[in-house]
Amino acid sequence: MPSRCTEEFRLRKIKNDQLKADAKAKGEKISTKRQPKGPKPGFMVEGATLETVTPIPYDVVNDLKGGY
After folding, report:
1. Is the full-model pTM beyond 0.70?
2. Cβ contact 32:19 at 8 Å
3. Residue 66 region, left (φ>0) first, then alpha (ψ -120 to 50), else beta?
4. Structural element, H or E, at residue 16
5. CA atoms of 30 and 22, how far apart (whole Å)
6. What is the widest separation between alpha-carbon atoms in the chain?
7. Which is nearest to 31 in space by CA: 42, 20, 43?
């Protein structure tokens, strides 16, 4: 069974060649380079509440463990 690792590349090459031929017939120039995906759209978090957390002093933690 032959490898299919280049299948997507070959299909993209055939499609790009067709797009280039169509653009050349119209007298246009096109770019067939793949573009990276942009950043995800931002959003606002609604209804969140802030909680202030205070650290426990080390002495208290040490006393709870038995005072090692």
Report:
1. no
2. yes
3. left
4. helix 7-26
5. 10
6. 85
7. 20
- Per the model's pLDDT, the better-predicted residue between 60 and 38 turns out to be 38
Instruction: Name the residue with higher pLDDT: 16 or 64.
Output: 16
- State which amino acid sits at residue 16: N
8-57: pLDDT as tens digits:
999 999 999 999 999 999 999 999 999 999 999 999 999 989 899 988 77
| Chain-centroid distance, C-alpha 62 | 44
Alpha carbons 27 and 22: distance in angstroms, whole number: 9
Residue 32: name the closest of 13, 10, 4 by CA: 13
Which tokens belong to 8?
């997507």
